[in-house]
Amino acid sequence: FNYFAKTTLDRFDKSYFPTTGWAMNGVFKLITDNGWNYNGTTPVPQLGITIKWAGQISDRLAILPSFHSQFTFTSVPPIFYKSYVGGFQETNYFGFYLPFAGLKRMELNTDNVALLRLDLRLRMWEKVFISMITNFGIYGDQFFPFTDGNLMVGGGISLAYDSVVGPIEFNLCTSNLNHDIIPYFSLGYSF
């Protein structure tokens, strides 16, 4: 039996390919195995925060910074409640998933993670976009990943089309944790 709270605020002008606005998502979980404690000790509290912003530099160029995090406030959460890092989708069907350009989907799992991402998106034609993606983060299984954590840096390039079935996007990316060039293709809306 677990306790869960979530809040979402979204002020973007468009769901996909925004040019102005911001969004914030906060998730709190209290993980137990009997409604009161976990493995005979205290429950496992977790907090995840995502903040995104979109700003227009010109009529064709937008800047999109974002912050993603997940923190576990005790030592060992169950594996299915860890933070899963990598890829581009932001779904939370399995644990807590954080996107990171340069890693394959769910390539890294950890207890604590904080990521910063900065995209520069250029509208080439009415519905065709090209983006430069940069991100870095700190992760670790210790309580304070900012002082004792591991550093990750990644980035890539994206070509996208805003179609009637949703965004069609092709990405190429790499990182210091996975030196391969990773292709990623997505078609349609995320839900």
Summarize the structure.
By secondary structure, the protein is an all-beta fold.
Task: List the defining traits of the structure above.
mainly beta, 191 residues, nine-stranded antiparallel beta sheet, three-stranded mixed beta sheet, 1 helix, globular, single chain, 58% strand
Q: Please, could you describe this protein's structure?
A:
Helices cover 2% and strands 58% of the residues. It contains one helix and twelve strands; from the N terminus they run βββββββββαβββ. It has one helix spanning 145-148, and strands spanning 3-10, 21-31, 44-56, 61-72, 83-85, 96-98, 108-110, 112-125, 128-140, 150-163, 166-175, 182-187. 28% of the residues are buried. With 191 residues, it is mostly beta strands. Strands 1-2-3-4-8-9-10-11-12 form a nine-stranded antiparallel beta sheet. Strands 6-5-7 form a three-stranded mixed beta sheet, with no helix packed on it.
Q: Structural class, judged by helices and strands?
A: mainly beta
Major β-sheet strand ordering:
1-2-3-4-8-9-10-11-12
Number of strands: 12
N-to-C series of helices and strands: EEEEEEEEEHEEE
Fraction in helix: under 10%
- Report how far the terminal alpha carbons are from each other: 25 Å
Q: Give the overall shape, derived from the CA principal axes.
A: globular
Rg measurement, Å: 18 Å
Whole-number mean pLDDT: 89
Number of helices: 1
Task: Characterize the main sheet.
Answer: 9 strands, antiparallel
Beta-strand content bin: over 45%
Low-confidence stretches: none
